[in-house]
Amino acid sequence: MSVNANVEFSTRSRPTMKEVAALSGTSLKTVSRVMNQEAGVSPELIKKVKQAALSLNYQPNFTASSLRRSDGKTNTIGLLLEDVANPFSSALQRAIEEVARDRGVAVLAGSVDEDSARERELAAAFISRRVDGLIVVPAGHDQSYLQIEKQSGTPMVFVDRPPSLLDADSVLTANHDGARLGVQHLIDNGHERIAYLGDLATISTAVDRLAGYRDALERAGIEFDPSIVKQNLRASFEAEIFTNELMDSDYPPSAIFASQNLISIGVMQALHRAGLQNTIALVGFDDIPMVELITPGLTAIIQDVSGLGKTAAELLFDRIDGEQLESQHRVLDVELVIRGSGEIQGPVRHS
Amino acid sequence: MSVNANVEFSTRSRPTMKEVAALSGTSLKTVSRVMNQEAGVSPELIKKVKQAALSLNYQPNFTASSLRRSDGKTNTIGLLLEDVANPFSSALQRAIEEVARDRGVAVLAGSVDEDSARERELAAAFISRRVDGLIVVPAGHDQSYLQIEKQSGTPMVFVDRPPSLLDADSVLTANHDGARLGVQHLIDNGHERIAYLGDLATISTAVDRLAGYRDALERAGIEFDPSIVKQNLRASFEAEIFTNELMDSDYPPSAIFASQNLISIGVMQALHRAGLQNTIALVGFDDIPMVELITPGLTAIIQDVSGLGKTAAELLFDRIDGEQLESQHRVLDVELVIRGSGEIQGPVRHS
DNA sequence: CTGAAAGCGCTTACAG
DNA sequence: CTGAAAGCGCTTACAG
């Protein structure tokens, strides 16, 4: 049974300020004053207007007011994420929402899916809706298309990956240093033959992490061996396959550095299946869910995803508030969390 | 070094159709015709207008056009989720985005956090921005505040949980039948003493799953024992604690039904820590990530989260397109995925 | 303290 | 095929 069968299909159009004015016997301008809580309206008129608004169920039209208002703000920002469904993106979105919420700002979000055409479409869609600012995890390698938009006064902040061919704010993780730290940890535990399994070589974070890996090897005087380095792994199962190949090879590594959580998962699956999880050391970049249930626990380089989102949102709102600074570039530190997999000892004896 | 140091701080205001008209020597209306690809403009004028638009970097203002257009559509919908950061919500968001994307519709999303005040605030924020429709995972127990909005012609669809005190479309999972199926599976494997660990008793899905549990027991002639039933578990660690209590009790259950993935994780942690993961059977509602790495694998009732989002979005767009149907109520089937934890045999012998 | 007029950037409804 | 006028729902700038 319908709760309100009698009104089910009646569609009254939405009341306007003009109608509220008519019902309350005042002017449009007075209604506007009351709705915006401007000072200098007599208590009687305030009461009348509020009553009329209530009885008509008046709901202010924020898009109309934003069109006319001198600041032109829509109190809406746009978020371009890798994929709203992946844990990194959604943690980012959550942290940004938190900052936006406190300011009465709504958040438009979309998935770029590592597709530069999609990135431009989404940016255009948000711009045509006149968002007050943009937070972007870029997929393409040329953000110059946003130059005009930036000059037109739309603040924008890049997160996780820096913009290319565009000078703008960015908030990044210490990818190079983080990877170096992780590989250094394996070296400290007696490993020399350390494989590297990485993401798409077109993603800047993957490039930086590989550089960090090489840096750690170089500092320890270990030669770089391309045969135990694999990039462009796009899924856990690809990492699993390459791990199997490594283990079946003539000269397998004693340790693995996984540049990303999906890759860590693939490596762990391969090691578990081969019964090598307590033999081959593993350090991963990024945390994985439910890490407590797996033995040995994953030793990992953890990034501050909430911090990335919060910092990006704060920078963005500073710009929206009119601050005119040079481009800001923030780099957030990582943390090495020790859980067992990275402390499996390697063959090298340190004195 | 800045890529464009010379223009860094110059903020040109955004060009309007009027300016494009002036530059191209045509009228505002002709520019509007060209931008909207209306038929009946001479090729020469089209060319002139396009050139002028390009040289001014004209970007259409969709909010302004939506204010004037007769359909009034903003091509934006609003999503009220439990928490954009949780996997269920973000999978839902992703599926909805997919459908919206094909129609050129942008998605506003926000987290309700099981807070009914927050639910109303978010709904109001989206409504004041004149979204074309709302998809809601309700937290509160009274959605009558949306009645007026619904009558005003804003389509809305409820997902995962039905609306209360409001007649509207809904897309739900078969929670009762799914839970019954899971508990039935444990009974079929020889269990009679089956504990139930559930979420907040104010959430309708939790209520339905508990009812499904009781239904399965009743059908098998097993008496309901409140001492091994716990509701209102809000985190994995709470489920872990209660599992420990169960195991330490005088008459522990031989099997556990976990009504939700966070609870499954807590139970698994407790069982693993006690070394009982191959002794006590477990079936969970909802999948957990990385299930492949854990032994025994979690036997689970899997819901079609993408299907929920896709169906909800399709229903919503049907309404936005003007279909005037009675309220639609869809219920999506679940699947029992067998992975080992639910097939641990209980004490009862079936002939 | 209150309100009539103009205008935000567009589209609609008309007229030529 | 083209354009001048009016108006979407509001706020601004001004006058009383």
Describe the secondary-structure layout:
The structure is a homodimer of 351-residue chains.
Chain A lengths: L16 H8 L3 H8 L7 H14 L5 H7 L7 E6 L5 H16 L3 E6 L4 H13 L4 E4 L10 H5 L4 E4 L9 E5 L1 H14 L5 E4 L6 H16 L9 E2 L5 H13 L6 E4 L2 H13 L7 E5 L13 E4 L2 H16 L8 E4 L2 E3 L14
Parallel strand pairs in A: 1-2, 1-3, 3-4, 4-5, 5-11, 6-7, 6-8, 8-9, 9-10
Antiparallel strand pairs in A: 10-12
Helix pairs in contact in A: 1-2, 1-3, 2-3, 5-12, 8-9, 10-11
The first copy, chain A, binds a DNA duplex (16 and 16 nucleotides) through α2 and α4.
Mean of residue pLDDT values of chain A: 92
| Rg over alpha carbons of chain A | 27 Å
Principal-axis shape of chain A: elongated
Strand content of chain A: 5-15%
Give the largest chain-chain interface (CB within 8 Å): A-B, 72 and 71 residues
- Quaternary organisation of the protein chains: homodimer
Poorly predicted runs of chain A are: 1-9
CATH superfamily of the largest domain in chain A: Response regulator
Report how far apart the termini of chain A are: 81 Å
- Named at the architecture level, the CATH assignment of the largest domain in chain A is 3-Layer(aba) Sandwich
